[in-house]
Amino acid sequence: MATAAAQRTAGSEADGAPDPVDTTAYQHAFDAAVAADERIEPRDWMPDAYRATLVRQIAQHAHSEIIGMQPEANWITRAPSLRRKAILMAKVQDEAGHGLYLYSAAETLGTGRDELLDKLHSGRQKYSSIFNYPTLTWADVGAIGWLVDGAAITNQVPLCRCSYGPYARAMVRICKEESFHQRQGYELLLALSKGTPEQHAMAQDAVNRWWWPSLMMFGPPDDESQHSAQSMTWKIKRHSNDELRQRFVDICVPQAESLGLTLPDPELRWNEERGHHDFGPIDWTEFWEVLKGNGPCNEQRINQRRRAHDEGAWVREAAAAYAAKHTGSAGGTGHETGATRA
Ligand code: FAQ
Questions:
Q1: To test the ligand 1 pocket, which listed residue (127, 227, 248) has its Cβ within 8 A of the most ligand atoms?
Q2: Which GO BP terms, alphabetically (predicted)?
């Protein structure tokens, strides 16, 4: 008997569009592939809503990576040593790379990067709430690495098993790099925590400010998460927002102790019965306000992104001219992108 993968690609048209009369059969093959934990690949038939959900999530993720460069880039020129500066530059560059892998993954779904960037710039697509908070001191670089990258890894490791192949494969590399980022943040905070009383206080202040927004990164509570149930059925998401948030809290508590820092939540305590830490209520009003554009830095972030895009127009034009010049030359890969191979 043919595998689900063979069934859903067999007979598909070159443009990926099935004969309308056969849609039910394709749907069955798609469902079977998802149930069997097989990967859906770009040329496979997939429901329109599955494609749209992936584009939405991958685009939002890609936008987060590139907008996420801004808060830390703010500190590159003020890093306290050459070593710290080199590490921070590498990290910020990695985030740009993550954006590229993710835009490429979205391209495999038939949505170009220009279109996605246009939607970001016009406010029709979101980026993570976390990047609308300011980086006030050098310790914020450590707190972002430890908490924001830590939250990102907790959320993204399960995405390495996402049912859509290009997204899942992009996540493997991203998670490896994020784990380096998390370690550098932890190490930076440890140095400050063990430093002078002023440095310790600076580290504590940064953790106090980044803790709650980091918990919000996982998205709204499960009963308010409009996409979770369907995304989990499709195995795009493997865990709910609240499950991952809880996992993150449980990971952070012992790490905070090792750092010699406290988490700003008086209700945080181990619950023997649940086998997890209980934690205090999250201010969801703040979260929704940030999503509506009313966070401390929303305007600054999007304006900076638009400006960078406009100022980079000449680079895109030069790259396109170069590619056009080399199209048809030996190798003929002038316009090839990672999109088809992501
Ligand atoms: N911020 O129904 P759900 C990083 C929106 S990468 C803004 O639960 P879903 C690396 C959601 O889109 C960080 N919006 O949605 C780094 C939806 O609105 P929509 C980004 C949010 O998709 C580190 C509505 O709320 N990571 O940090 C947020 O099932 C350091 C209802 O929510 C990813 O994108 C939020 N936090 O679950 C870079 C990971 N949460 O779209 C630089 C992939 C929810 O209908 C420096 N994404 N919303 O208008 C995911 O796993 C999911 O999309 C969730 C949300 C879990 C974020």
A1: 227
A2: phenylacetate catabolic process
